[in-house]
Amino acid sequence: MADLNALAEPMMSDGCRAEIFSEQYREALKAACAEDSEIWEIYANNFGPDGFDDSITRYTTNPINRTFVLFESDELAGMSSYLGIDEGRQVLEIGGTYYRPKFRGTGFNRRVKDMMLKRAFAAGIRRVEFRVDRRNGRSQAAMKKLGAVREGVLRADRITWTGHVRDTVLFAILKDEWLPATAQSAISAA
After folding, report:
1. CA–CA separation, 83 and 91 (whole Å)
2. Which of 9, 20, 173, 179 is in Cβ range 3.0-4.6 Å of 183 for a Cys bridge?
3. Among 138, 134, 128, CA closest to 180
4. Which residues in 14-164 belong to E strands, given as ranges?
């Protein structure tokens, strides 16, 4: 069985840190999410200025989710969540991820995902899924770079907050096939 308590503990690795969302972070995270109001058009949920409060409340009050505020050193960098935690199946999704524009393309995503994957697998999760809007090419490329396997497209999977009927690209990493960035670097250098 998965250790659900471990999935809510703070994480720290390679200069980045994740703290479970609490009200003390609400206004700062809301401001960070407002730095790129256009990006929310390709998200299933609206964390932009007009939708942030409802969306964060929906995420954080769902008992099968764990939402984290992310930091680069001590600077707030964004958020990400463990979603749909299924203890019996030992499966969860990493999603609802947003980085402030200045952190995109810096390697921060890889470090955060490695930290979150390491925690999930150590807590007894055997499969981690990533669900990406078909229109979001940047996230799909990041999943491939991470080593996630593209398993297919869930056609007309959900209706987003804008009313768009979304096709979702499903990626997954199994515990036995995951290699953290440090291991991949060592293999590449050999």
Report:
1. 10
2. 179
3. 128
4. 16-20, 66-72, 75-86, 91-99, 127-133, 149-159
Residue-wise pLDDT for 26-71, tens only, equals 999 999 999 998 999 989 999 999 999 999 999 999 999 999 999 9
Smallest Cα–Cα separation from 97: which of 158, 16, 14, 167? 16
Phi and psi at residue 4, to the nearest 5° = -65, -30
pTM recorded for the entire structure: 0.91
Euclidean distance between the first and the last CA atom of the chain, given in angstroms as a whole number: 36
Q: Where are the domains of the chain?
A: 6-189
Radius of gyration of the chain (CA): 16
Give the CA count within 13 Å in the CB-facing half-sphere of 153.
9
Q: Side chain identity at 116, as an amino acid letter?
A: M
Kind of pairing between the strands at 91-99 and 75-86:
antiparallel
